[in-house]
Amino acid sequence: MLVVTNRPGRENAREERLRHHGEAVAVALVTGDAGDAEGGTGWQGGLQAAADAARNESALLRIADEVYAAASGLHDPDRVTAFATAALEGSDGPLAVAFLTGMLEGTSEDPELDGVH
């Protein structure tokens, strides 16, 4: 029987990937890049990549559903920040927290977002 155990740092690497995906989703939302989940582009592709990286963890999937439902109203950094901040308050999982933290990082003084208010 094969037993798989988490190696030290493995969870931190997953959390770091989810932070990156959260940041990419935030930037794509603000710049209006919906992209395509299957093609791995835009905010839809970022959500799919995050779900895959989180191995479909329920807390992350719930957030992805909420982002998808709210996407049409998340078109500027302030709205994305407000969304991620509110979602963090009710978040219950390290991977979901990492993703939302990345979303906040994606809206903080990012040169790509200059003038996109």
What does this structure look like?
This protein has helices spanning 10-31, 42-53, 58-70, 77-89, 94-106. Helix 1 packs antiparallel against helix 2 (42-53), helix 1 (10-31) crosses helix 5 and helix 2 runs antiparallel to helix 3. It has 117 residues and is mainly alpha-helical. It is globular and about 30 Å long. The N and C termini lie far apart (55 Å).
Question: Gist?
Answer:
62% of the residues lie in helices and 0% in strands. The protein has 5 helices and no strands.
Chart the SSEs and their pairings:
Blueprint: H1 10-31, H2 42-53, H3 58-70, H4 77-89, H5 94-106
Helix pairs in contact: 1-2, 1-5, 2-3, 4-5
Characteristic terms for this protein:
single chain, 117 residues, mainly alpha, 5 helices, 0% strand
Which residue ranges are poorly predicted, with pLDDT under 50 across at least 5 consecutive positions? 1-7
Give the fraction of residues assigned to helices: 55-70%
Number of strands: 0
Instruction: Specify the biggest β-sheet.
Output: none
Termini separation: 55 Å
Query: What structural category do the secondary elements indicate?
Result: mainly alpha
H/E element order: HHHHH
Average pLDDT level = 87
Question: Per DSSP, what share of the residues sits in E-state strands of 2 or more residues?
Answer: under 5%
Q: Please report the number of helical segments.
A: 5
Tell me, briefly, the overall form. Answer: globular
Rg, alpha carbons: 14 Å
